Amino acid sequence: MAHKKAGGSSCNGRDSNPKYRGVKVYGGEIVLAGNIIVRQVGNKYHAGKNVGVGKDYTLYALIPGVVAYCRRGKHKRRFIDILPAQQNEVAEAA
Fold first, then answer.
1. Which of 70, 42, 64 is CA-nearest to residue 54?
2. Are 50 and 61 in contact (CB under 8 A)?
3. Does residue 3 sit within a domain?
4. What's the pLDDT band for 52 if we cut at 50, 70, 90?
């Protein structure tokens, strides 16, 4: 006969890895082409001028410039634009 009582199973003990989502660059900041601006689930922020969209809805800069947030359209959606910067501003950021 066993002298130890059997340990019960638990429903806990699982967790998913962090995804590090959120805004990475705020309005007025200088970005280079390819810099990630926002990691998100679905389109909380929409791509505006000079902004690309990844397959997981990540928004990234297509050109070097300054980030600008605004609301546009009938439903006041949040758009992110990249305004082309002067050459000397981009050189300072690099």
1. 42
2. yes
3. no
4. very high
